[in-house]
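Sample pair:
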Amino acid sequence: MKTGAERNRIEGSSRSATIADAPAGGASTARESRALTDPIGLAAETVMNSETLSAPEALSKVPPSNFVEYDSGPYTWRVAAPFADWFQRATTNWLHLSDVSGSTLVKRNSQRDVWRVVIPEGGFFVKVYHPVGLLARAKLLIRGPIASQEWHVGRYAAAHGIATVAPVAMAWQQDRRITGRSVLITEEVAGAKPLNEYWLGIRKDRVAADRLLDALARLIARAHQCGFQHGDMHPGNLLVRSDGARHEVFFVDLHRVHTGRSVMPRQVVANLAQLNQWFRRNATRTQRLRFLHNYICYRDQFAQASPLARNWRINLRKLAADLAVQAERHARRLWAKRDRRSMRTSKYFAKIRPADGWRGHALLLTKHPASSGFSDMIRIDRRQWENWLQDPLAWVDPTRHMLLKDSHTATICRAHMTTGDTTLEVVVKRHLARNAWKKLVQTFGPSRNMRSWRMANKLRNRDLPAAIPLAVVERFALGIFRQDSISFTEFVDGAVDLESFLTRGVTDLPVEMQRRIKDRLIDSVVRLLKAFHERGFVHRDLKAPNLMIQWEPPYDAEPVLTFIDMDGISHRLRSTEPQRIRAIVRLCASLLSSPGCTASDRLRFLKTYLTGPGRTSSDWKRYWRRIHEEVCTKLHDKEERRQWKLVHYGRE
């Protein structure tokens, strides 16, 4: 068995391998053994220096003698030549890794399992593909085994000097082409981390961040100029390895890579938009522009890297503008996909039936930590939810839990859920129908709690702060008539609503400090509302008590704002100006009685909100008068509504 360093020297490359799952090795008869006459690294160097060959011709110049192919039971195996001798002697059962010591399941979905295997010979990643569904099998019939696709993409990348994880071995069931499994094995890249994890650790180090952006731009520019387009280019599909002074970036998860054709401008923008989806939340605008500038420079440098390269001129400003448009389209598609996920069973959510007649949805795992500090990550087992909710109505029993609200429309309690060493503090809400019409709507339409569940997940999917929705259950009669509903939501610890903060948290401070705090708070609220409206949300009940704030003295950090009570929120393709003005009117009306919010504060808020790209605050007078009139109308309607409630319910 050769050491890792010896293999790298033989292959003429320091590229390692990662991610996959494969069948049983051991005794087998070689069907077709090919001698190692030209290492793939040397062939790749020859091809990279050739500027006259087409992509298929270039790949064909990599000799077919760099792997060994043989049969082992129902599987046909293909193994890279440097690993062939060891692999045929190995006793590891690559098809049943759950029984192999040192193997760990990394990822599992309906189409594949990913294992990490650590054995004395080294670390490997193993992907086992198992086609499920008519579409997956039709693709196999047309394209062949997915493991074979990744294998050929890895060879194509090596031939064109593109850093990817290198395939070690693959196998497929020849006699079951559309129903059988296929397996791909790659060697682990020692010391490598996913790009998203690595970036979060170094993004505040300007020198390290610039070096990484440069390496990333170089990799992607070369890939595009060599006809290599990754169809799922998010940071989790890129690995980074660094020795401190230099960064290496590798592509992984190659089954959605398109090769052998020029990457045109529209495809370039779409591909970069996939990467931008994550980086626009975790990198500054300056860093993103620096990456684009480096990418353009490296495209020019690699203009002769392959016959598929395209030497068209790129303007940085136009590329950034096109990328912004395409990134928005990509984000909308991604958001819609994530919205559907909250109503299905996956590793993040589960459908539950905790009690007779009750069914609903529960959160199993949070993908990102909560901005409100509720928990770094939430992990709850489905059985735990069903155990907690055996008697859903007990969670809104005021004799057992702290009662927060008891009205003719809702009962709200604060409760604790304990799992292991973790205690979750939650808000439990039960909506009540206040008249026959509301009861009829609740019976045949989605309940208010179910709408709140979906809306809260929509907000969080779009990076808008909302209290984490934990679970929602509904009770049905005869399986179709909805009778009751209960929701479980994060209790935002250490937070007060905006009205209370301005009334009690600010008024006792020195005047100079009040001005500084309120100016920063105005900026934060304006940014939140602009993002809220730009992403198509409309709030008909944006009152100060529905916006929570976490901000500890001496108020040096940024305030953390969180939406609660999703009843008044709806989602449209885009919000209109009357809808945005209505939200501002409702917010202003709710703060009129607060001594911490003066008329000058409201004017500062309006001017800040009106200011933006291509706009100034010069129209503030027109909006000020309009808002004043609508606030007066709102207060009049509110008083009439209060009197109506007193007459019909005996209370507000």
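The longest strand covers residues 410-419.
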